[in-house]
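Lab meeting, item 3. Inverse folding demo.
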């Protein structure tokens, strides 16, 4: 986004203030504590953990004489709810239709501090009239009159408990990273993390490395299990029975650490971590944190801490690159790994397409050329190349061929996935993302093809010897996986041949595959952060263009001259995240690496590089508005000044603040 979510900064009290802080890295603007960076002794970074630190409960409540929530039921009887009045001052902004006023709404918690978020009842407008003994309540913006709508003699509700509701000293713990002398101290500081849910990797100047995902997590010992897992109503990955199970708390000791002995929490030493593992590296890419899911069971470990995690495309590729780099890794290699645009989805799924093209049903006249192009792409290593000349990209010898194959493959894979699943009408069963869940399920379905139901699938059809979900509902014929793969390819080729809907959007408008260059459709969007609050159709939508970085700010020429956004290597789920999704029609993306930072630590000091896509100045007339976007597009970065001498040498101006 523009501006970037993280901002580069140096923090120092050691040189001028007599303190012990000397750090460079990135902050969330407004917080004087580094999210990622180095102090010269250690360097650290982090990714989202996908831990489960919130439990949800099915409650039964009773009402008072006025129809307000009054108590919740449990095995021991009823316990009064706690009512908290929240007062909101609404601004008077006529141009936005906002009338100034004060509003007071009540929220309720159970006696053990679980927040009520929804109640059974009829939905109404906040000013609707109600009958005797009825009251309108506001729960997460939904206005309801609590009542027994389904006539089962109960009024149900949903409540939650969350580790972030407990007494945490989060910034104190994070500040410990920046003042750590080694990775052991980084791990020790993590003992104070609550409601953080991050994977943390660190290295120190002695050569030690660390992975930890620790945060305070309830042990959930009160949830009963049997031989098959948690009993009904006690599964923390689902809705818990709130009449039988209460909330939890995360205890804190005098050092602001999670107190393992003070309550029911996952012990610090039992939580997955690794220091100096034998393979010589640690990594994190939102993947499984400790092989918890490798036995195909998320819930059978001594402690439940979360998941599922991402499918592992990026982590697998990073592991390959790091394995090859053990003993020879340097800054240049780390930067090259950050720029890696190998198509992991191509490597996994192109063989499925090629096998389908060998079937006698592959009669489309275009398929022979497609097969030759995909086979060539595979032989060359599945490089998802843009194939377009820009000021930051210079195509290499085979890039044009790879770019065409990448376009064909991505037009196919999304349609194949869509044809397999979209007709089933399933609810949101895929987690933690639709892409993760669908690719994991499709892999299992393809492995399950063949006589004897090799994967033991309940959906296996003995007539087709594969999953029944490959059949498209509502059609008279019984479709198969091969038929779907070929139909998806035909549809994808039709799309690529179709006329563009706008520059850089839609098809290429030609049957000449040589012109289907991936970079003319796989483009990075640097959009204003105001897009979270405005749309192009709003009265103030024009503001979005003013604060976005597009080709009117960084012009392109040649084949890319009429594009609004920027051609990029890579495809969905690669290391240098360019996730265009499995839509199959829009290959642009607006969510990529928010920074690319590398540090080398050692006895001779620190060397580092970093770049953020949104720049350091939100003023469109500043030379620093889009300068880093230009570097980011080419996987280039700026040297990070660390010592006082380096900062002074790099400085362009100086400001002194006094009080």
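The presenter then showed the designed sequence:
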């Amino acid at each position: 986004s523009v501006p970037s979510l993280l901002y580069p900064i140096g923090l120092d009290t050691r040189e001028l203030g007599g303190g012990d802080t000397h750090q460079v890295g990135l902050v969330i603007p407004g917080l004087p504590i580094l999210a990622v960076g180095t102090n010269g002794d250690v360097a650290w970074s982090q990714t989202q953990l996908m831990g489960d630190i919130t439990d949800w409960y099915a409650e039964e409540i009773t009402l008072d004489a006025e129809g307000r929530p009054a108590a919740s039921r449990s095995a021991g009887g009823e316990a009064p709810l706690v009512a908290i009045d929240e007062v909101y001052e609404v601004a008077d902004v006529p141009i936005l239709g906002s009338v100034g006023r004060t509003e007071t709404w009540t929220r309720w918690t159970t006696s053990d501090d679980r927040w009520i978020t929804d109640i059974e009842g009829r939905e109404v407008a906040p000013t609707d009239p109600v009958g005797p003994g009825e009251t309108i309540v506001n729960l997460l913006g939904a206005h309801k009159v609590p009542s027994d709508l389904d006539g089962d003699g109960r009024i149900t509700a949903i409540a939650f408990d969350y580790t972030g509701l407990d007494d945490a000293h989060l910034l104190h713990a994070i500040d410990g990273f920046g003042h750590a002398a080694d990775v052991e101290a980084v791990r020790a500081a993590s003992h104070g993390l609550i409601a953080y849910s991050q994977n943390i990797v660190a290295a120190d100047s002695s050569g030690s490395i660390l992975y930890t995902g620790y945060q305070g997590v309830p042990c959930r010992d009160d949830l009963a299990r049997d031989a098959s897992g948690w009993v009904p109503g006690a599964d923390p990955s689902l809705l818990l029975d709130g009449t039988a199970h209460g909330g939890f708390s995360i205890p804190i000791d005098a050092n602001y650490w999670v107190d393992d002995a003070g309550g029911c929490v996952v012990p610090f030493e039992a939580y997955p971590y690794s220091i100096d593992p034998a393979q010589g590296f640690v990594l994190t890419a939102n993947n499984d944190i400790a092989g918890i899911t490798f036995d195909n069971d998320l819930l059978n470990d001594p402690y439940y801490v979360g998941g599922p995690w991402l499918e592992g495309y990026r982590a697998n590729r990073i592991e390959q690159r790091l394995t090859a780099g053990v003993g020879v890794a340097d800054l240049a290699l780390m930067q090259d790994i950050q720029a890696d645009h190998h198509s992991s989805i191509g490597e996994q799924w192109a063989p499925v397409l090629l096998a389908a093209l060998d079937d006698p049903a592959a009669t489309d006249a275009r398929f022979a050329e497609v097969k030759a192009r995909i086979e060539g792409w595979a032989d060359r290593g599945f490089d998802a190349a843009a194939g377009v000349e820009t000021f930051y990209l210079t195509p290499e010898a085979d890039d044009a061929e790879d770019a065409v194959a990448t376009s064909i493959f991505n037009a196919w894979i999304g349609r194949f996935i869509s044809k397999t699943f979209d007709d089933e009408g399933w609810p949101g069963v895929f987690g933690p993302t639709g892409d993760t869940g669908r690719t994991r399920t499709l892999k299992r379905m393809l492995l399950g093809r063949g006589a004897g139901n090799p994967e033991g699938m309940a959906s296996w059809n003995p007539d087709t010897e594969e999953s029944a979900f490959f059949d498209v509902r509502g059609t008279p014929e019984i479709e198969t996986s091969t038929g779907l793969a070929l139909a998806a390819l035909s549809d994808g080729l039709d799309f690529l041949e179709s006329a563009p809907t706008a520059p850089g959007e839609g098809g290429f408008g030609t049957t000449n595959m040589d012109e289907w260059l991936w970079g003319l459709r796989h483009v990075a969007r640097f959009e204003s952060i105001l897009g979270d609050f405005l749309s192009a159709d709003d009265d103030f939508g024009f503001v979005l263009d003013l604060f976005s970085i597009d080709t009117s700010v960084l012009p392109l020429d040649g084949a890319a001259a009429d594009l609004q956004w920027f051609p990029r290597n890579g495809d969905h789920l690669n290391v240098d995240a360019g996730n265009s999704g499995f839509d199959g029609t829009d290959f642009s993306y607006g969510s990529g690496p928010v920074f690319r930072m590398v540090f080398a630590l050692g006895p001779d000091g620190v060397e580092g590089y970093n770049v953020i896509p949104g720049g350091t100045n939100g003023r469109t007339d500043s030379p620093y508005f889009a300068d880093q976007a230009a570097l980011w597009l080419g996987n280039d970065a700026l040297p990070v000044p660390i010592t006082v001498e380096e900062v002074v040498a790099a400085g362009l101006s100086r400001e002194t603040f006094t009080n």
